Amino acid sequence: MIQTLGYYLSEHPLIVGFRWKHSQSWGNTWVFLFTSIAAYVIFSVFLHLILLLLFRHRRPLPLGPIPAVHSLSMALISFTIFAGILLSAAAEIRDTRWFWRRYKTTPFQWLLCFPLGTRPSGRVFFWSYIFYLSRFLHTFRTFFTIIRRRKLSFFQLFNHSILIFMSFLWLEFSQSFQVLAIILTTSIYSVVYGYRFWTAVGLPSKCFHFVNHCQVLLLGCNVVCHVGVLLLHFLKGGCNGIGAWVLNSVLNGAILFLFLNFYVKLHLEKRKIDVTKGSETLDSVKDKDS
């Protein structure tokens, strides 16, 4: 069974023979990229305004099991991508070890820094393509938030749009670091969406802001890895797709800034709530004593 799974995740002819070409892969043109992102933003704003006009004084619309099904699906998809790219990376390391010995490159350096001239083909780029497509499914959470909470978050729109854009750049320019980035992201997302499914079906949550803590961990790992790519680029004579990597780093920095701003505000609000509850409890105790 393990060999069968390994075959379908890393050795299938469709995976081994994958090529990122405009004539073979769906959604791999710049026109499609910008059109899809614009459609996502416009539809989100339109849905938010329509719900505010039609259901301003009503309770949030129920979605039933749809969020739970979406979370379970995304958890399974993320875990499949994680397993697939992990096995594919191991297979690529096995098949090209002779090439790396010639250029004195280690597997860990390859995960951070593709050699110059790398083309978007083969196992790891197949799973990078699947990851790119899964980012569109990820945007459904924006619609759930709008329908259930009547809330449109600029950070959510920006974050989802940038994730789609960056995953496109990974493929278009054979950008370095993408293998490790996908491994980190899908491992965290498997846990995050599993937790969301757990709470969506009514099971108790055990950790305050568990999802936010996982996102902080992911962003911190990305920062460390980006520093590693920069060092290898200057020490090893260049990494493939470094121009796209620079743009990727700027966008990641913007996401990190916005998320930390949101994270700090969230904890300040929690602290204010805790202080208010504590003062109310103290006042009630004084009233009983009096």
UniProtKB/TrEMBL annotation:
Location within or outside the cell: Membrane
Keywords tagged on the record: Fatty acid biosynthesis, Fatty acid metabolism, Lipid biosynthesis, Lipid metabolism, Membrane, Transferase, Transmembrane, Transmembrane helix
Under the GO molecular function aspect, what terms does this record hold? fatty acid elongase activity
Q: Does the record carry Repressor as a key word?
A: no
Major site of localization recorded for this protein: membrane
**UniProt xrefs under InterPro entries:** ELO_fam
Question: What's the name of the protein?
Answer: Elongation of fatty acids protein 3-like
